[in-house]
Amino acid sequence: MYSAQTMEAELIKSHWIEVGDGHSLHLGEYGNPAGPVVLYLHGGPGAGCTPDDALLFDTRHWRVLLLDQRGAGLSRPRGSLTDNSITHLLGDLERVRKALAIERWCLAGGSFGATLGLIYSGLYPERVAAQSYWGLFIPSLEGMSWLYGPDGAAKMFSAEYNDFSGGIPIKGWLPLVFEYFHKGFSHPQQTLAERAFRRWLDWELSLAYPGNRLIGPLDWRSRVLAMIELHYARAQYFGAEALLHKALPNISAPTRIIQGECDWVCPAPVLEAFAPLSARLGEQIELVSVGGGYHSLADARVHQAVSRAGNWMLAMVHS
């Protein structure tokens, strides 16, 4: 077992990788340039990476890749929704791997990043040595309805859901909810657009880390996150559920999924009801429950479990 790191992550280099369709992805490399590679997959989709994400791993040993997916973070064009789908993101991962001449790597990520990584690991099982994920999002109708409809998380957070959904004529019909926010985000009056962004982001934050709300003006990263999240939700995640069905039986890498007991964004019942995943639990895939843990990495219990999973992956690589 390897000890957790206490120093700041050392930046090896930062550059952009052209992946076609006018997109250029920002990639930051941290840690030990001679170490095994772990690719960090941010969530959202659209959240982007920050240098602190490298601190999830012991960079004395790991070569950590922080990749901003299409439109997210520092990738160009910022916030672009054109040619931005799950299929594009999966293809980008292979382009990055080939561009860096990496034969095999480890994967780690949360929420939608976990979804993306699991699909990739089933499509390219020979490329993944080990992987760890947290807060896995199941891109099914059940997962979407729990998150955005009136009969899931809304039952537990009724006041927050009313703030989110107030003004939508027919609550519970997901296409109408998404179209309502699509119009809101692009409203010509800045104050109304700002209100729509804040409602979307406040609802998600209230589930990810209950009791917290956005403070102060929104920055560009927050707006980009909301725009790309809505883009994917409106398209039902571009068939990601079917891709997950196809990929899960083919996963061969040791896999750990961390699930917070109080994760109200991607709750355990939705995850456990997803039959293709349940069929693999106890085989190649290990499910670790974190008592009292939320969805957010700001929760110390989840953060510690993710850091321990990084050490576990390192042991898998060296075994």
UniProtKB/TrEMBL annotation:
GO MF annotation terms: hydrolase activity
Main localization (coarse): cytoplasm
Any Pfam family: Abhydrolase_1
InterPro entries from the UniProt entry: AB_hydrolase_1, AB_hydrolase_fold, Peptidase_S33, Pro_iminopeptidase
UniProtKB keywords: Aminopeptidase, Cytoplasm, Hydrolase, Protease
Presence of keyword Cell membrane: no
Catalytic reactions on record: Release of N-terminal proline from a peptide
EC number: 3.4.11.5
Record-annotated AB hydrolase-1 domain positions: 36-130
UniProt KW Cytoplasm keyword: yes
Signal sequence coordinates: none
Domain of life: Bacteria
Enzyme superclass (EC): hydrolase
Recorded coiled-coil stretches: none
Localization in the cell: Cytoplasm
Family named by the database record: Belongs to the peptidase S33 family.
Protein's name in the database: Proline iminopeptidase
Organism: Shewanella jiangmenensis
